[in-house]
Queue: 3 jobs
Job 1
Amino acid sequence: MRQLWTVRSRVDNCLAVRENHLPGWTDRCDDRGVLAVRRAKPADAGDCVAIVRGLPEYFTEDVPDKVAADLLAHSTWLAVDGRTPVGFAIVERRFAHAAEILWFAITASRRGHGVGSWLLDRVLGELSEDGLRLIEVKTLDAGAGYEPYRATRAFWEKHGFLKIDTIDPLPDWSPGNPAAIYVASLPPALSG
Ligand SMILES: CC(C)(COP(=O)(O)OP(=O)(O)OC[C@H]1O[C@@H](n2cnc3c(N)ncnc32)[C@H](O)[C@@H]1OP(=O)(O)O)[C@@H](O)C(=O)NCCC(=O)NCCS
């Protein structure tokens, strides 16, 4: 009975979110919550930094400051559950046709439930509509032999990213941390 009530109220919640749909927001409902995507504001930096600090196997101690600065300088999308950010993507546009995903992370407790895939689809969909054709991401190469990043590379590869190079050392990365350079192409926007 309690289960039925939970499912019913989740459905009601999803409907309520859709009825109050704001421009630029997209919704996703699953068994873990009602999610939306929105552009970040400067005040969201603390939440993004907290997500990064909660993933110490993935991000070194210099990363929180870089994320806070990059959020102000570049386009940032947040996945939010209610008012709580559960993931973010920071993208630097290099040219009209090309951009790099500088930072991408899902809060530790929500990893592995499709939130990253959903956020990435929304971000790339919006960028594609805006004329983007190529997207790059750098991540730790398999040659580093560091287990946690196996899942990260699987994530990018599942979403069509192809490795085009390994660079070690990459400027700003410490030696011994080979960078895998991945790119993916986006289809031309239908409206384009
Ligand atoms: C990488 C990350 C963004 C993926 O987001 P997510 O919500 O956890 O991933 P999803 O649930 O959408 O998974 C999509 C696919 O990624 C791969 N994947 C995700 N977690 C995985 C794991 N633990 N092991 C192997 N593959 C995994 C799988 O291919 C999966 O598809 P499947 O569910 O059909 O098997 C997220 O886990 C994260 O924040 N990781 C730590 C920080 C990080 O690595 N950021 C990127 C730096 S370049």
Job 2
Amino acid sequence: MAADAPTSGIEFGTCCAELKDAMSGEEFEPLITVGEDSVLYMSVGLIDLEDEEPGMVDHPLFFCPFCGTKLQSVEDVRSKAGENGVDD
Ligand SMILES: [Zn+2]
């Protein structure tokens, strides 16, 4: 049964309006985004790349920074990100 769980079924941003607004980013570039692996990431900084635009440094977000709701567990992130993490 667990294998039938929809990968896109988790709705991040339902815990509070602040997170929803931060993710929707209609008037700005959101720093909190859901990756292709369905893991919620937060950009924590910029990294300088030689001869390129600065790159964003992302970290999985475990708790909502606004209301403190637990959004995903370390195990969730590991299993999701691990499935297609080092695949090329
Ligand atoms: Zn929240």
Job 3
Amino acid sequence: MNDDGFDSLAIRPTDQADMPDLMQIAAATGVFKRMELQALSEVLHDFFAENQAAGHCCVTAEQEGQALGFAYYAPAAMTDRTWYLYWIAVRPPRQARGVGSALLHHAEETVRRHNGRLLLIETSSLPHYKLTRRFYARHGYDVAAVLKDFYSDGDDMVVFGKRLAVVSERTAGKAEGSIS
Ligand SMILES: CC(C)(COP(=O)(O)OP(=O)(O)OC[C@H]1O[C@@H](n2cnc3c(N)ncnc32)[C@H](O)[C@@H]1OP(=O)(O)O)[C@@H](O)C(=O)NCCC(=O)NCCS
């Protein structure tokens, strides 16, 4: 409990019983298409069926017993310690109050603990994702790639990336060697 008598925000592992809340939060943001919400439902089912055991992570932000947001992240297959943040969403009335930042920091800390090297996030170039893109930029993410018309004509995929570990000497040496 904080000085104002409110429980402070907790970030905890997502429980299977949270699924309806997480689906409701994602739908309430109004930014995800129906097929994306369907994909989220499948992702959460697969998470509890097998992917949690395979190293995927899902966390829920909770305050006063209410789920306010969640983040889902996992290692990218066939890479050397690259991770993906697949989902992050905050209940609209509670957006812009630090919940998303707390979830993102928690995800980054978990990835660092696993010696993760690079965290990637895919999002859309559409205007209604402008605040989302600003959110990633404010947290030190650079635009690593733009795939024109990926989602549909006029809707590019914008890939944000952030290095979470320093470039290893071996890799740096290779890069220098390739220039000279
Ligand atoms: C993006 C999101 C997770 C950020 O979480 P949040 O709790 O709202 O963000 P925080 O309060 O921690 O950070 C606020 C910053 O994020 C950005 N931001 C993102 N969404 C915002 C919103 N609805 N209102 C105001 N600022 C927002 C701004 O840059 C803001 O800082 P600034 O005003 O100083 O520029 C959340 O707004 C959300 O759920 N958006 C809809 C779903 C979504 O786009 N998910 C990502 C899909 S790729």
